[in-house]
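Handout, page 2. Input:
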Amino acid sequence: MALNLDGKKAVVEEVAVYAAKAFSAVAAEYRGLSVTELTELRKTARETGVYLRVVKNTLARRAVAGTEFECMQSGLVGPLLLAFSMEDPGSAGRLIHDFAKTHDKLVTKVVAIGGQAYGPAELARLASLPTRDQGIAMLMSVMKAPVGKLARTLAAVRDQKEAA
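Output:
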C-alpha cells in the first residue's frame, strides 16, 4: 500500500528518532525471505533490543540524514531492512549475523558504527562485540586481578614469616 505524504513523514520521523539514539546500524537485503521468516526475525529483534524496520530507500536516506549513520546513505540500494542496536553496539550485528547463518537470502549490505560505514565483511566483528553485561564483567575481572595478586603476595609473606 502506498503511503501518502503524512505517512512518509511519520516513517521518516520514527526512523530518525531511533537512528539518533542507536549505537550501531546494519542494512541488509531481505529479498527472497518469506513472511514467516521476516516475522521470526522481527520477533527476535524485539527480544534482543533491536529496532528493525523495512523502509523505502529514499525515506531511509532522509531519516539517517543528520545522524551518525548518514555515512550509510550511498549503500542504501535495493530492498533493505534497517536494524538499529538500541541496547548495546553489537546487538543488531548479532541478530543479522545469527539469522543469516540459517537464512542465506538475508544479505548484509552496510554496517555502520561510530559514524563510519563498513562493508558486509565487518558484520562478524560487530557481532562479536560484548554485551554491556559482558563488558562490565571483563572490566571487573581486569580490575580485580591486581588486588587478588596483592592479597596472595601478602599471604605468602605472612606464611613465610610464620615458618621461620
